[in-house]
Design goal:
The complex is a heterodimer of chains A (79) and B (226). Chain A is mostly helical. Chain A has one domain. Chain A contains three helices and no strands. Chain B has 226 residues and is mainly alpha-helical. Chain B has one domain. Chain B contains eight helices and no strands. Classes of the chains: A mainly alpha (79), B mainly alpha (226). Chains A and B meet through α3 of A and α6 and α8 of B.
Chain lengths: 79, 226
């Protein structure tokens, strides 16, 4: 439990830093979705399954899809 | 110089937040009202999922506000996007066979799962918002995989309006039968049964339909209009 939680927190940190560093915006969105996914597993481990389901469905799936649709209308690479 | 100042400010903010959070014991109950929900929630509302009893029963009026915020956001997005709408349909590549078959097989299953989540909101984890988001992700799959199957916008608007209407009408019925808005006027039944907890399942089904059609409408607007 403790090791899994530690691993998930590290994964979230890596994902958050990667999302802000990547020049390719699609990769940045995927990294941000990874943060949400790890957060939802962490919510489940902390016995909040309701929040975990909302986070997985909205944070990881729908938000990433909306960002990708928006990026496909503009430019993919940051200058 | 600017960078040093911003790092310094960041450190000060992090110290302040960690100092104030360190005082709060982790996982220890601090409020009496939380204790009351856990001990008396099942008896008072009939819902075995305590989160649902708080969201729909004890704090039902806040949930109505939350649903309204989502509604206004969806309307605003639709207004902004239809103002600059393109002429004619967009040229799209057909999806690959794997994506097409996968989405045709998975879409009904995702719909059933989302419906299950919001119908059983008062018994198991989940509820209207989660179920609605799951259903909307199913519609997202349809938009990615088989574009010729579009959802009718009139049907989605009707479902959205019906969901909101059911929520408000049930709240007003509570005001008519008793003393306050969203009074639980139906019999509570036995806990753990599907037909229990009075108006909670009805309201959660209304919220599920409303949130699902709203989020699907947002995706539809983003993909088709912009």
């Amino acid at each position: 439990m403790t090791f899994l939680a530690l691993f998930l927190v590290l994964l979230m940190l890596v994902g958050a830093v990667a999302a802000s560093v990547f020049k390719d915006l699609i990769s940045a969105v995927i990294a941000a979705a990874l943060v949400s996914l790890a957060a939802s597993i962490l919510f489940y481990l902390l016995q909040a399954p309701d929040v975990a389901m909302a986070e997985a469905a909205i944070g990881a799936a729908l938000t990433a899809a909306i960002f990708i649709i928006a990026i496909s209308r503009t430019k993919r690479y940051e200058e | 110089m600017r960078r040093i100042i911003s790092i310094l400010l960041l450190v000060i903010v992090a110290l302040g937040i960690s100092q104030s959070l360190a005082k709060i014991p982790f996982g220890v109950p601090k409020t009496k009202v939380g204790r009351h929900y856990i001990n008396e929630g099942v008896k008072e509302t009939g819902a075995t999922n305590i989160v649902t009893s708080v969201v729909v029963s004890y704090r039902g009026f806040d949930t109505l506000g939350e649903v309204t915020v989502l509604f206004i956001a969806a309307i605003g997005l639709g207004a902004v996007l239809t103002a600059g709408a393109r002429e004619g349909p967009r040229k799209t590549r057909p999806a690959s066979l794997v994506l097409y078959t996968g989405c045709r097989l998975l879409f009904p299953l995702i719909l059933v799962f989302g419906t299950y989540v919001f119908i059983h909101g008062h018994l198991t984890p989940g509820g209207g918002f989660q179920g609605g988001a799951i259903i909307a992700s199913g519609f997202l799959l349809i938009y990615l995989g088989c574009r010729e199957r579009r959802i009718s916008r009139a049907a989605s608007n009707l479902a959205e309006s019906l969901g909101g209407l059911v929520f408000v009408v049930i709240g007003l019925l509570g005001l008519g039968f008793g003393d306050y808005f969203l009074l639980n006027f139906l019999p509570k039944g036995t806990a753990n049964a599907l037909f229990s907890a009075g108006i909670i399942p009805i309201i959660y089904i209304a919220i599920g339909v409303k949130v699902g059609s709203e989020l699907a409408g947002i995706i539809d607007n983003l993909i088709e209009e912009s």
